[in-house]
Amino acid sequence: MKCFDCNSSLSKIDLLNSSCQTCGEILLPDDVDKLRQFLGVSASKPPEIENPVIESTPEVIPDSVDCPNCNTPLMGDDLANWESGSCIYCGEPNNAIGSTTTQSDDIEPTPSHPDNRGSIAEDSEIRISPDGELDFCSMIINVGPMVGQSIKIPMGKPIGRNELAKLLNDPWYQGHLNRVSSEHFMVVIMPDTVILENYTNDKIGVMDLGSTNGTYILGERITGTSATELRYGYDLNIGGNIQMTLELAAGANPIVAGFFITHDQSGVRWGVEGNTQHLGRLDSNGEMERWAAMADLQLRAMAKDESIIAYISRRHMEVILDDGRIKVNTFEGKEEPEINQNTGAKDVDPYFITLGKNSFLVEF
């Protein structure tokens, strides 16, 4: 029996590693069964594994309220001072003394100086205040039942377990948030960022605040006191369990073409900076493509079949945004995908790309 990619003869060592040792091509489950029968090797019984029981109890989120003037979260003594009369930070008087001051998770905090906050570019997910500072940026959640949804991460403030618990309000995340430190990371503006009237040049950075279980960008743990740049399409992983990616802002850098891709089977969604995205398992350096790594983690987390990604070759095809339309360049010898568009009448209609057991939604 020969490898479908390089035509070399497959042996027991290839069966043991479930991949061709000559070219590295992964063997699909059906091919593994065929090779096992060809070599006369019986299937091994997997060991029984007992799932660990997490006995720790999630930290209780304290009652808090955001000051309507300075937007500072008030807790403990600060909250008591507010309930008795005013904000300890800006002196804003509490005009509703005697009413309930605990802020519900589903209530958006009142912005500071709502008539003088600066403008937001249409559809932009980066908010800019008049003094040249960003209030928040949007992140796409790429793990758990909220996969594909957006949350707003405050800029320049420590983000930890309590802050993420308010944003990730599905019960599924409770146990996973135990790995997030109380002050885990901070999203900041990189020092060389140029602030323009309605957008920035997208130099967004992330700092780890000495967390126990780490902050990762592109699978690499970030350390030190300097921020690491977070670009569109880069995966940000918090504590090993929570993964997200920066949402593409339509009002951001005008030189960024930008489009979104969603992997239907996992729900993982990411913004592409520029005009080209490779849809294959491995990048040009032989490392796992970040979309594939995010999809793999999500499929495993939701107990879905992660082996479907193996039906895509290491280098398979490129999705290209060219003059307002989507084109697909399939590498030589690879299976051609099926491409459909909703109506074909509008360039902005989403494209549907189907390749075997995998399908992708492309929007721009």
Task: Name the poorly predicted regions.
Answer: 57-61, 98-125, 196-200, 250-255
Strand content: 15-25%
Q: In CATH, what is the class of the largest domain? A: Mainly Beta
Rg of Cα set: 24 Å
Structural class: alpha+beta
Residue-averaged pLDDT: 77
Written account of the structure:
There is one protein chain. This protein is an alpha+beta fold and 364 residues long. The chain folds into 4 domains: 1-46, no CATH class; 70-103, no CATH class; 120-247, Tumour Suppressor Smad4 (Sandwich); 259-363, Tumour Suppressor Smad4 (Sandwich). The chain contains 5 helices and 20 strands. Strands 3, 4, 5, 8, 9, 11 and 12 form a 7-stranded antiparallel beta sheet that branches. A 5-stranded antiparallel beta sheet has the order 14-13-20-19-18, with no helix packed on it. A hairpin with a 6-residue loop joins strand 1 and strand 2. 29% of the residues are buried.
In short:
Helices cover 12% and strands 24% of the residues.
Which characteristics define this entry?
364 residues, alpha+beta, Tumour Suppressor Smad4, seven-stranded antiparallel β-sheet, five-stranded antiparallel β-sheet, 5 helices, 12% helix
